[in-house]
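Sorry to interrupt, but I need a hand with the structure work. Could you write out one complete protein record for me, on any chain you like? Could you add the entry underneath, on a fresh line?
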Amino acid sequence: MKHSLLLRYVIPFIQWYALMILITIGIDFLLHHYQLAGVGRYLGYVGTFLVLLSFVYSLRKRKIIETGSPKKLLKMHEYVAWGGSILLLVHAGIHFNAILPWLAVVMLLINVASGLIGKFLLRRSLESLKASRQALTVTGLEKEAVDKKLFLDSIMVDAMKQWRTIHLPIAFIFGFFSLLHIITVFMFSK
């Protein structure tokens, strides 16, 4: 059981996170190798657009917009935000001349990690509840009895769904630092 938990949840998280970092390093290396480091500046615009586009899922979830499948929009949110994060990390590069962009980068990395962790933990708890429900149903218990036995598990799944209460403030802090960075760039650019 622990082996499958490691393979199904921990390793994929590490792979997605490491892949994001490796792709960032690879793109940054290629840009510097071909003396195109200035392109990184413009990748910030594209990355910001992609991250903002990923919020379509949040708008649909809160019923601010009515169109689109929530399941498909969630997948789009995950991949578009991940791709936008890569571009923003390339944009950030390795520059130690300003604290504000680094705060935004740190919050970006924390936000991506919280999103991946929440995704894998929620999936794990939903799969566990489903497996327990199926096992109890096979024994011949009626639906009400199964629901009673799984009451605490259901509460745990509902609690896991609340991880967004952590993910959302992190996203807002990231957005705040990013907005401050953008404002200061416009204020102090020549």
Q: What stands out?
A: Residues 1-94 form one domain. Residues 99-138 form the longest helix (40 residues). The two ends are 59 Å apart (CA to CA). The chain has two domains: 1-94, 97-190.
